[in-house]
Amino acid sequence: MVYLRIVLQYAVVLIVALSLNFALPRIAPGEPIDFLLPEDVLANMSQEEHAQVMREFGLDLPVSTQFSNYVTGVFSGDLGTSVSYGMPVWEVVLSRLPWTLLLMGWALVLSAIAGSALGVAAAKLKGGKLDIMSLVGVMFLGSAPPFWVAMLLITLFSAHLGWLPSYGAAPLTAMPGSWDWISGVALRLIMPVTALTLFQTANILLTARSAMTIALGQDYITFARAKGASENRIFTAHAFRNACLPIYTNIMIGIGNLVGGALVIETVFSYPGIGSLIVEGVGARDYNLLQGVFLLATLSVVLANLAADLGYPLLDPRARRA
Amino acid sequence: MISKCFSLFAVGAFTAMTAASALAQDAGESGVQAPPAVYLSAAQNDGPKEAEELTLGMWVKAGNVTTYTIGNSWNDWILWLVYDKLREPSPYAGEAEDWLATSITQVSEDARVWEIDLREGVKWHDGSEFTAEDVAFTFEYYREGPANRWTHHSSSVPRMVGIEVIDTYKVRLTSEKPMPNFDRITATDLPIIQKAQWEGVEDPRSFTDIGIGTGPYRLVDYEADRYYKFEANENYWRGKPTVKKLNIVMIKDPQTMFTALKTGEIDGAARPVPPELVLQWKNDSALEMISAPTLWGVWLDINVGRKPFDDRDLRRAVTLAINPEPMLERVVLGQGKSGKHGWPHVDSFWTKPDLAAAHDPELAMSILDEGGYADRDGDGTRETPDGKPLVFDLKIASNQPTFLRAAEIVTEQLKEVGVGVKVTSIDPGSMGQMWRSRQFDLRIADITPHGIADQDMLVILYRGDIKNEMLLDEDKKTIVDRWLNAETREDRLKVSYELQEYQTKYPNRVMLWYPETVFAYRWQAYDNYVPSTGYGIFHKYSFLPEEARDGTVSPLLSE
């Protein structure tokens, strides 16, 4: 029954999200045609020519018809054609998705490990050198704009040292699957993953430190100490187990955001992921493309939240009772 | 090294003199000649003239490289790798070389009927033969089909009313109005597409097949917004290309693009080098830079469809009050030419040689006084005759910091004559809609050579304004009508000059500056780039053998 209620809740969220995904691109000023054709062409176009271009992409239809076509398309797997790419939206999105998953996945794994470990250690050594250093580092990295960090990395590791390639996701001249290609992909991941990891680690570190600090101040910790439990056991079995819920939530949110890509980082590194696709879609007012990407991002967030909800009872017996 | 510099200078100077002399003799015209391109690097090296593979950076995506996915002068050069025109290189230089055509002849005295003899033995990339059917189809498709950047050559100016295949290699075209510059403008700008590939295509913007052309390169693989791979067409009729494989990678961020060039990840950057980098790279031993004319411009667009800009005297006062000189110095660090030369581009062949926009704030103020635009409430800003403050909104795109600096200067200058300006920065995505719906008083925007260096386009822009009922100026309309009916090159050029004078005096677009465009490349990878007016140095002629470049290249001098 509980699970049914959760699924119904998410169904409602999905319906609202679908409507917003349709409405948001259209609320922005401008139409795809403004970006499809240069001004000198637009200036001289007749009404018929204008209507013809709109018809090509189904934009001449009433908004209600466009919406019903969109909803029908979502359930039949046809998200229409991207105006700026001239290709089916799914094809465009799927060509970008693996790159984004690779980039965001590595950044999430590394930031989850580094953030959790540093946060827990900082809580354990609260007030000590590690705690202060990690807090200062976090405040700095968390507040530094990611594009600035990215540019610093490019300047240092590409322009000055010449160690790492500065753009793209894969070497263009190597055969896909070959060792050159794999190593090229790995090298091109280092800087964008580092920029994202630095940024995301700050968030997870703060969450982990705060959760551990709160847990270590609870009565059950005092009780465990009174019982004679070792400090290690108190820290891992009592405090960490309780503190891992917020960390888990944070990581699940990160998983949900995986497919949304990293708009700024992908743009700076010319990384062909979903983030740079969104930038392209917004710039071109490519309604179909934006609807497709937003749909994917929505599904990802909804599913990650659902997974998080379903996972809580496994981590915390109190959630099972609730 | 010295001998190379000297020979470059000598060849450049000779070419410049020869070209100037030819232009002066031709039809008695006195067209402007774009200045020669110039090496900017401290040392001009002597690198390889051929290469197996090159990687170049580009920043504007080009879809599947067809006329329906390209419309921007920053990326149309890759279209020309694949496609050829009847004559080349472009409509901007005035002169052209027969390319797919072997001769183009004016048949009727009124310049409405032309016949084109086509080159025999030219093959499409799929091996089939290029014939008159393809040329006729191109004109028909562009006249009847969906609009793109090139369709006006058949559907508007000029509008073709007769397209006939005379035989396998001959076509006759008849237009509604005279087209005395058909061989210099239409023929030098319109890419010829293959009938077999396009005749069944109804929605060309959703067509994703790789375009089949007759050009020196075949597109073999692409991922729009990521990369394009070209291979040399070894059997190109004009000569075997000098680079076997061309990889074009998309890098949108300028800093990343120039870092990639500096580190050697790319061999050339098809994007102008910013002024501060030009100084920095001047002594870089791995890079060479060439300043080559691309004929771009930045203008202040006045919305003549919105009152009180329908008053041409007000527009005249605005242009008299604006001094583009400080913008050149303060905005682009002197890298370019001032817009005082007027509109169209100062280096376009079609521009009146002594054209200049006057700067006279005193005269501007007296015109405003006479027009009833007086400061009645003493707040320093004039009011319109019906009492509304003479304050205009000036819109710029938020991703153009140089435009913001220019807008500040425009504001200062107009304030001196009592005209108020409120600058608004809006997201680039909204600029197009704002322009199309005419929801602005003034805006600063850049404009491509297609818009300011092609005589036909000048009139197309005017006609667009008239069509959209934005231009109520009968005098200008009369000049445009005379231009459309002019039957000879000389008459048309004469009327065009009249139009330019009129436009410069009563503008709806005030030129602010013409940027100098500097391009950089790694000479050790390939050192055979040549300039072509309007295209810079990244274009197909840079990848053709020396003998195939005749008539397409503009002079290149040492600094």
Automatic annotation (TrEMBL), chain A:
Has UniProt tagged this entry with the keyword Plastid?
no
Could you give a single Gene Ontology term from the biological process aspect?
transmembrane transport
Which residue range or ranges hold the ABC transmembrane type-1 domain? Answer: 97-308
What are the entry keywords?
Answer: Membrane, Transmembrane, Transmembrane helix, Transport
Main localisation, per the record?
Answer: membrane
The record, for Pfam families, names:
BPD_transp_1
- Subcellular localization, per the record? Cell membrane
- Gene Ontology cellular component terms for the protein in this record: plasma membrane
Q: What domain of life? A: Bacteria
Q: Which Gene3D superfamilies match?
A: MetI-like
Q: Mind telling me which InterPro entries this protein's record contains?
A: MetI-like, MetI-like_sf
Q: Where is the signal peptide?
A: none
Instruction: Give TM regions.
Output: 7-28, 97-123, 135-161, 181-206, 247-269, 289-312
- Membrane topology, record value: Multi-pass membrane protein
* Protein family (similarity comment): Belongs to the binding-protein-dependent transport system permease family.
Protein name stated in the entry: Peptide/nickel transport system permease protein
UniProtKB/TrEMBL annotation, chain B:
**Gene Ontology terms, cellular component aspect?**
ATP-binding cassette (ABC) transporter complex; outer membrane-bounded periplasmic space
**GO terms for biological process?**
peptide transport
Q: Name one Pfam family in it.
A: SBP_bac_5
Which SUPFAM superfamilies does its entry note? Periplasmic binding protein-like II
Q: Which InterPro entries match?
A: Peptide/Ni-bd (IPR030678), SBP_5 (IPR039424), SBP_5_dom (IPR000914)
Location of the protein in the cell: Periplasm
Q: Which Gene3D superfamilies match?
A: Dipeptide-binding Protein, Domain 3 (3.10.105.10), Periplasmic binding protein-like II (3.40.190.10)
What are the residue boundaries of the Solute-binding protein family domain, all occurrences included? 97-464
Give the GO molecular function terms.
peptide transmembrane transporter activity
Kindly indicate where the leader peptide sits in this chain: 1-24
Q: Which PANTHER family match?
A: PERIPLASMIC BINDING COMPONENT OF ABC TRANSPORTER
Family assignment from sequence similarity? Belongs to the bacterial solute-binding protein 5 family.
What name does the UniProt record give this protein?
Answer: Peptide/nickel transport system substrate-binding protein
- Report the source organism: Roseibium marinum
Q: What is the lineage of its organism?
A: Bacteria, Pseudomonadati, Pseudomonadota, Alphaproteobacteria, Hyphomicrobiales
